[in-house]
Amino acid sequence: MADVTRRLFLRHLRGAPTTWIRHSVRGSVRHEGVGQSFWYRPLVGVLSEVPVDDRELPLLFHARTSDFADVTVQATVTYRIADPALAASRLDFSVDPYKGVARGRPLDQVATLLAELAQQPALDLLARVPLAEALTDIAAVREAVSAALRDEARLTDVGVSVVSARVVAVRPEPEMERALQTPTRETVQVEADRATYARRAQAVEQERAIAENELQNKIELARREQQLVEQHGANSRRKVELEAAAELAVAQGRAEREKVANAAAAERARVLAGAEAEKERTLAGAKADGVRVVGLAEAEAEAARLAAYRDLPPEVLHALALREVAGQLPEIGQLTVTPDVLTGLLARLSR
Question: In the chain, which residue ranges form alpha helices assigned H by DSSP?
Fold first, then answer.
């Protein structure tokens, strides 16, 4: 839509790069072209605005195949107005000179014309082919639609040029589509089942191989365990033999050492006994000599004492005897002398 601004009783129009604008006054063209910008009087000016850019027209229509199956065709047509002057003269592209708003809807007419022109060749082609071919050969439908639109004179008369025509999909009704998908689904399911069975068979084979490997491993482990037990027994016997030999050697060494020790002890005891006997003999001899010497000395002393006492008078001997007796008596704290005691004492002294 053109941009129209107001200045007093005048209007200014500024177009776009993709719109073709024609300004005519009383039947004569004042401005015409793409990207126009000009002042005009809305009371006498006539404006036409034609878009010249590429436009997409989505199409969705139903058709019937030769086997009476309903299908839905989804297509897209790209077109543009190649001759905007011709289009403006054939269709109502007029614009309100006061507001710049289009008065009609010419593009809807172009869309309707393109939809009818595109549907007809597609319907004719699909009516001659069965459903399976219609669903698989979409290129034929696209070629038919493109050729029909490219050679259509009514489009040229209104200045419309078709850039391209694309058929996106041809689809049957949902029930028919599910029915058509059933064989494929069943085939895929069969292949899936076959793959599952093959995988299971392979798994069973692998399990069998694994079981055989496990059995072989168990047999090998049992054999190695037997070897290990035998080796362990041999090692135990060897260990016992070595320990017995070691104990025997230790016992023999101990016995030899004890024998040597006993012999050494006996020899030492014999030597000690000899030395002790010699010591005893020596001590006994020395003691005997000492006793003999002491006896001789005592005898000589007693002889000398007797010799000394032999020459003493009897009174002195009595006094010495009394002294000796007094020395032998216990300590007397208090002495009571009676006539009987004195008489006995004098009698003893006189003897």
Answer: 84-90, 106-126, 131-136, 138-150, 153-157, 174-310, 314-328, 339-350
